[in-house]
Amino acid sequence: MSSFDRHPSTVADFDDARRRNRLRETRLGHSWSGWRRTRLVLLRILGFLLVALIVFGQYWIHDVVPERERLAQTSPELLPANLPADARDWDTAVVDLVGLGGVNATPTAKALPALSRLGVVWAVRYDNAGIDTKVIADMIVRAARYGNVRNIVLVGHSMGGIIALEVARHIHQSSDRRLVAVVLDCTPMDLDAVRPESRSRGADLVRWLGWLPGARESRILRFAVEMSARRERFAQRDGLFFEIDWRALRETSAQVLRDKIFSDDAASNGLIEAQFLAIVAGGGTADLRALGKPNPDKRNPAIVFIRPREASRDEVVDVEYSHRVLIENSGGVNGTLSVVRPSGTEHANPIQRPAEYNAVIEAQVLPFVRRYQEANRHDPP
């Protein structure tokens, strides 16, 4: 006789039907007599919300709060970049402002030593929490008074030109300093001048900032946006799916983390939003018109537009469009506009093409701006 014959209960212990019954008896809500399915659905929703709340809490504590505390300590600064090439030009300051995604203009200003032929060169470091052009203008005017600087030249690269034009309006209309010129490097004069692909990236970021709590400080969101903008480096579409180059993905991730997330000179989400919205709000056309209005106490400043000779080389801004807008508002027979078209340059890239930029500044920008500089020197204080 087998052991199973001697112990028939053993067979019952391995009965599958009995096992399923026991499982049903131990399930949550087995003994509930009413609204069992509804109560189970509500419990699952509650569990999902609890997990989401825990994840959001970690995001807020470890991502948003530290960045918000850091940004609260930032403020705009005016930094020295180059001394004037001629001691007689200490009465003029050239102020450099960078564009979208940049914070500190010092590297750009140092790449353009030709600007020191006009005067002392300063670089603006934006407040990473956002942009207030009146604050920047007042900061420049205070420094000019302290240094006995009478004349001011503003240089704006890409979207920094929009900021430069607004700062210029404040200085021209509301200060005792003389605005000699505004130099615009590949500046989009309004949103229509921004090429569609670049416009959509800015719009996507602004859209995220509008509805995601803490998005203005979130480094996780910034990483996602920056990686999305560089996806062509590591992802190629293969039908409905993407083929990932994992080595390129690692290299791109390391670059974004180094240059955009952990760098002190990387623009915050809030600063990028402020820079982009400056164009969305109307661009620099209104400020350009304000600078062109007759002023009994001051001469109208010179406007210089630096753009690639071949417009297609600028993949961010439609410089032909900006060129037409500038002619309409500052050109003409008695206009104050000079357009400079160097060969070999692309979108606002003086750090990458310093030789080309300095050459056209020496040959074309300086002679044009100096006429306004000398005229201001002969005006009564």
From TrEMBL:
Coiled coil start-end: none
Pfam families with a match to the protein in the record: Abhydrolase_6
GO molecular function: hydrolase activity
Gene3D superfamilies in the cross-refs: alpha/beta hydrolase
Membrane-spanning ranges: 41-61
Superkingdom, natural source: Bacteria
Hydrolase as UniProt keyword: yes
InterPro entries: AB_hydrolase_1, AB_hydrolase_fold
Record key words, sorted: Hydrolase, Membrane, Transmembrane, Transmembrane helix
Domain AB hydrolase-1: 91-259
Official protein name in the record: Alpha/beta hydrolase family protein
